[in-house]
Amino acid sequence: MKKSLVILGAGYAGLMTAVKLEEHTRNRDDVEIILVDRNDYHQYVHLAYEIVTNVKKISDITIPMTELLKNRRIRFKQATVNEIDLTNKTVKTDKGDVPYFELVIALGSEPNFYGIKGAEEHSTRFNSVESAAKIRDQLKKIISQVKNPNIIIGGGGFTGVELAGEILDEYRCCVTIVEGADHLLPSWNNPEFSKKVADVLIEMGAKLLLDKFIAEVNPDSIVLKDGTQIAASLFVWTAGVQASTVIKKSGLKTGKSGRALINEFCEAVDNPGVYVIGDSALVIDPATNDILPQCIEIALQQADAVAKNLKADLEGAQKTVYRPKFNGLVLAVGEKFGVGKIYGVVVEGRLALMVKRLIHLRYVYEVAGLREVFKETL
Ligand SMILES: Cc1cc2nc3c(=O)[nH]c(=O)nc-3n(C[C@H](O)[C@H](O)[C@H](O)COP(=O)(O)OP(=O)(O)OC[C@H]3O[C@@H](n4cnc5c(N)ncnc54)[C@H](O)[C@@H]3O)c2cc1C
After folding, report:
1. What pLDDT sits at residue 321?
2. If residue 358 lies in a helix (H) or strand (E), which one and from where to where?
């Protein structure tokens, strides 16, 4: 019987773990790697906003698993994970049970609607290339049919701001951002960036409703906590995310936003041999005790550490302690303005957009290799 190393999720964290683990275990015939995802492709989800305005097609930012796993000893199973039976070491999916010897959970995140009335039923999500394509189609219809459309984005964080910038650039229609904090990008903790981004968005025609909470979402309007009702041709929810609910359902210990509590090896606490990485895990900077943002850089770092630790488990060797290193993020506001801090250096304007593009190419290289980088740059 081969030892099944099962990886759930083929996003940044899961795919990279599978690829690195395959490299570490190439000479072992007693091991099989199984990668499970509901989709048969990997997506560059951080470019999803470019789908909304047709700058990119879905095929530009997705890569089929068959292509990615060609010549690799990784078995791919397309299935939706429902729950993990930790006692019997079995993953329950819509396509049957998958027993495991050791497990990596990298199922990403899901929207969190915080129980706001009507939010789940009446808002459009923006968390994948598929949801971006849905927004693109809805927008096209609205712009051609509605005289004065009002596109409302719930949440002025990173995702909401990038989406707003892209829509304003392309359609110049009214975009309203509703944000509970009194400034945009609250999790960034950089008042200077928040102000700059707010100024750029206002200049582009956005309306910012700051320090406002959404109490209710209806099919064609939203209601704020102070009772104000605002008509919405389209309402997009970007205001909250939580870890994949499979984590909680399976009985793993969780912290903020349902993210799994992990130890210094990225193992779920109290569950040796079950690793949780990427957006599904609560990652704390040991130097500052701050919770680190859910981002690609951390997902890739954890994948590297966990692939090494799985190898160490197989060999009975010492595991590697994962030390998170967050080097910063760059944000795009439409096609002309960007801002961010990377390796301690502030970048702004078109330079920031160039840096963002370079960061993307580095991701492409890490995930899919040089051939894909060439394809993207030609
Ligand atoms: C619109 C948008 C823009 C972003 N921009 C940036 C950016 O510019 N920079 C940055 O660093 N980060 C960005 N992020 C965040 C970044 O994408 C995530 O932090 C990163 O993808 C986390 O990797 P992951 O592997 O944990 O999750 P994901 O990449 O989300 O992968 C999870 C995988 O699990 C699969 N899956 C989920 N549930 C199930 C299930 N039940 N059964 C089977 N399969 C399942 C999904 O199909 C997916 O393939 C952005 C996110 C979004 C949504």
Report:
1. 95
2. helix 349-368
